[in-house]
Amino acid sequence: MQIVHSPLHLRHDGGMELHRGELVPCYEQPARADYIRHALVEAGHALVAPRAFGPEALLGVHDAGFVEFLRTAYARWREEGRGGSMLPSGFPARGLRRDRVPTGINGAMGYYAFDAGTPIVEGTWDAALAAAQCALSAAALVAEGKRAAYALCRPPGHHAARGTYGGYCFLNNAALAAQHLRERGFGRVALLDVDYHHGNGTQDIFWERNDVLFVSIHGTPETEYPYFLGYADERGAGAGEGCTLNLPLPRGTGWDGYVAALDTALRAIADFGADALVVSLGVDTYEGDPISAFKLGQERFPQLGARLAALGLPSVLVQEGGYAVKEIGTNVAGVLGAFER
Length: 341
Ligand SMILES: [Zn+2]
Prior knowledge:
The protein is α/β, with parallel strands linked by helices. It has one domain (2-340): Arginase, Chain A. Helices cover 35% and strands 14% of the residues. The strands form 2 sheets. An 8-stranded parallel sheet has the order 4-1-5-10-9-6-7-8, sandwiched between helices. A two-stranded antiparallel ribbon has the order 2-3. α6 (200-206) links the parallel β6 and β7. α4 (124-143) packs parallel to α5 (173-183). It binds zinc ion. Zinc ion is lined by residues 195-197, 282, 284, 320-321.
């Protein structure tokens, strides 16, 4: 399978994040992508560089003001004489105004962010744009006739919404891939999110659309990040009513519970009559993941890959989470190897 990857991901290294009351080293770290790349090259997959899609390619799924904020945020931070990582500490929750973006960088950051776990550093924009280009390029390969392609994206994307960032995500790589497939002639696209965490950003982007089915299997937001989206009663709105399917599962779910939800998801995708598939491929469902609580052993990732392939659809696989750094490569290679076989 062709692997689209850019070394520019190295420019994003967040340093510290606020996690459950403590400032800790970021779980989302550069070594993740290195372990994946190494495992995939070892398994015989071909690495290709992304194509040069410009920022205008982002506007199919993101607001222009949001993209401009991300592009210029660190320079504005620097203008205030600051360095290191940008982390917001105030947000427009209930009772506060959301109808205007403060002109100062601290307020603007709180306006566009939805957590304090997603640092912006000097190279974040370069890395996020490169990851988006990887996803768009993988979608272009599939639009040109490849059966499947994989985008080794870092930073990940599925928590990034039309106009907000968080959850280690800035630009929604998988949503960009799905939008690209739609613009290249695929009438109906299914987007399956198998990351441990709900893909709130992707859901937000396609919430009112009936040409993209969004299906997510994830830890229940009652106890798991991102807490405020991903419940089973969220089904889409307007023209998109019925085109969102959330399958939340409790902490501790093992393969039996997981595969029942996976079969439900795959059935929904078949019933939708999808012409193409995008997979938000998080492997933080692994039992050794430090911030997640499903119990999938390493042997389950090839089984997941085989089931995804059995849909028989042109497919773009996009890297999302996975924080057991030493095992992440093996887990991703397990999915991709079985998908190809
Ligand atoms: Zn995740």
